[in-house]
């Protein structure tokens, strides 16, 4: 929208040449903003076509920066999770190693939404969790035969569940296969101990069982015996060598 010339000339005393430059600058700003929106749409479409799982995990902009920093999607897939975590913070890493200080906890992943939503004390943990899942989805995008975003959605749900767990939330998401994520999975995996009725027996058989050593005890005893035998053999050899030296003298 152009600024009317007479009104500004009367109030602000702006010359015609200055007003022309202001209008040109305003048009350039509008053109740059339109180009930015077009470029973002192009980037979003390309990332959804090339790396849909990576886009779901870290977003279009962070995913594109990771691919550009690694050189290609194949190179990013070759990186382990520890390298993906500090990708973009190489200078800080080498400076910390040289000065023997703490190494950086995150690089480009700091700008991901999951790390940004976490508390400052949990940013390091969330960047480690996100890097592990990011390396996996990058390998899926680079090496899979068909482009499918199911794995990215599943892993993003797990990362969000881990974030809620660290922030103190009680709800835990379920994976696609139905396995629980978080403390519920540990509780479900631990076996339930049952009562042993054989310990109630007071017959002679139970006394014999108590008297008999277990397999682990036998192994320990055998180990002690083997050590004693080795010491005895060593002492015998030393005595023989001493006797031989005396006889030669």
Structural notes for this entry:
- With 249 residues, this protein is mostly helical.
- 69% of the residues lie in helices and 0% in strands.
- The termini are far apart.
Could you write a compact summary of the structure shown?
With 249 residues, the chain is mainly α. Helices cover 69% and strands 0% of the residues.
Topology:
Elements: H1 5-11, H2 16-50, H3 52-58, H4 60-70, H5 73-78, H6 81-85, H7 90-99, H8 113-117, H9 123-143, H10 150-166, H11 183-189, H12 204-211, H13 215-248
Shape: elongated
Query: Rg, please?
Result: 35 Å
The H/E string reads HHHHHHHHHHHHH
Quick one: how many beta strands? 0
Q: In DSSP terms, counting alpha (H) and pi (I) runs of 4 or more, how many helices?
A: 13
Mean pLDDT: 78
Beta-strand percentage?
Answer: under 5%
Q: Which residues form runs of ≥5 with pLDDT under 50?
A: 171-190, 202-217
Share of helical residues: 55-70%
Give the termini separation.
117 Å
Structural class: mainly alpha
Please tag this protein with its features.
single chain, 249 residues, elongated
